[in-house]
């Protein structure tokens, strides 16, 4: 797998509390990665869900348009609610 293909298959990279990544891999790619001694492969694991109590209606999230759209490789989703629909994605 070349660098560009690896970047394309990566879903998310975790670097704050621990170092890990989530990626979409073929069975062959997953088996090759699992065979390496420094990797521990797991599937279908939910790491955590943090309820911060923050809502998109907060003034802190008001988009005045000065930041522009999210980066092309951003894979998140926009939160919508009854009082908020200003997603710039």
TrEMBL record:
Gene3D superfamilies for this protein: Peptidase S8 propeptide/proteinase inhibitor I9, Peptidase S8/S53 domain
Domain of life: Eukaryota
Ranges in coiled-coil conformation: none
Subcellular compartments: Secreted
Domain Inhibitor I9: 5-39
Region annotation Disordered: where it falls in the sequence: 56-89
Entry GO terms, CC: extracellular region
GO terms (BP aspect): proteolysis
Ranges of compositional bias, category Polar residues: 80-89
The keyword Cytoplasm appears for this protein: no
GO molecular function annotations of the record: serine-type endopeptidase activity
InterPro entries reported in the protein's UniProt record: Peptidase_S8/S53_dom_sf, S8pro/Inhibitor_I9, S8pro/Inhibitor_I9_sf, SBT
Record keywords, A-Z: Signal
UniProt family annotation: Belongs to the peptidase S8 family.
Protein name: Inhibitor I9 domain-containing protein
């Amino acid at each position: 797998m070349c660098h560009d293909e690896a970047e394309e298959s990566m879903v998310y990279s975790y670097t704050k509390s621990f170092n890990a990544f989530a990626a979409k891999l073929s069975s062959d790619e997953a088996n090759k990665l699992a065979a390496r001694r420094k990797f521990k492969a797991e599937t279908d694991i939910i790491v955590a869900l943090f309820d911060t109590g923050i809502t998109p209606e907060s003034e802190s999230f008001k988009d005045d348009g000065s930041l522009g759209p999210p980066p092309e490789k951003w894979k998140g989703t926009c939160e919508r609610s009854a009082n908020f629909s200003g997603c710039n994605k």
